[in-house]
Specification:
Blueprint (H helix, E strand, L loop, with lengths): L1 H18 L14 E3 L2 H6 L8 E5 L11 E6 L4 E2 L5 E4 L2 E4 L13 E3 L5 E3 L6 E10 H6 L5 H6 L2 E8 L4 E5 L2 H10 L14 H12 L4
């Protein structure tokens, strides 16, 4: 009888293990060098163009405390890379933010500078990077300020490429993060929204992504 129970438990365990969902993931270095025009190109890991590019760091609007950002240029044409969604350059992946690819709850957010690309900081189940974002209402209100002041005052947001839903999700605060975690069957975290920081978000994304690398 005991042997029968043991085999039954092992059988049930094997079924449960077999039914565990496997999630898509991306590792650093998965993207061939080149320019990616669309999200479909990114998901297929197929660059739209392999034309050589170089970048300039956005020194006037960045500091060591801000996300790593770059302005890309086509080397042969010496023209700014403006419209592609992403650029893979020397083993690093860079994204800019487009409304058409973001979650519907994030449509009111824009980057504080267009055609600027942000380096991916974390790979795994989710691709993670950071950008300084402004809501449309903020842009209208701050329109009279100089571009330099507007850039400095931008709010840094963590952004994930959700491979399950094929969209970008701007993680606005701790509550928004917990909603995102619940939607992906990941336990919520206890936290005070007023004290939530980008550092906390980075640590959580690292915890989630680590098993997928």
């Amino acid at each position: 009888m005991k042997l029968y129970i043991l085999f039954s438990l092992l059988f049930i365990s094997s079924i449960v293990t077999g039914q565990e969902k496997e999630y898509p993931s991306i590792k650093k270095g998965d993207f061939p060098e080149g320019v990616y025009m669309t999200l479909e190109d990114v998901l297929n890991k197929k660059p739209s163009s392999t034309e050589e590019v170089y970048f300039k760091v956005c020194e006037k609007c960045d500091s060591l405390a801000l996300p790593e950002k770059a302005l890309f240029y086509f080397k042969q044409k010496n023209k700014r890379v403006k419209f592609p969604l992403a650029v893979s350059h020397k083993g690093e992946m860079y994204f800019q933010t487009y409304r058409k690819y973001t979650n519907r709850d994030d449509k009111g957010y824009d980057p504080d500078q267009y055609s600027r690309f942000c380096k991916v900081l974390n790979y795994g189940r989710f691709i993670y990077f950071e950008e300084n974002m402004k809501g449309l209402w903020s842009k209208a209100f701050l329109g009279a300020l100089s571009p330099l002041a507007y850039s400095i005052n931008g709010k840094t947001k963590g952004i994930v490429l959700d491979l399950d839903n094929k969209e970008f999700n701007i993680l606005q605060d701790c509550d928004d993060l917990n909603d995102f975690l619940s939607a992906h069957n990941i336990p919520q975290i206890p936290c005070n929204p007023d004290a939530y920081t980008i550092g906390d978000l980075r640590a959580k994304i690292e915890e989630i992504n680590l098993p997928y690398r």
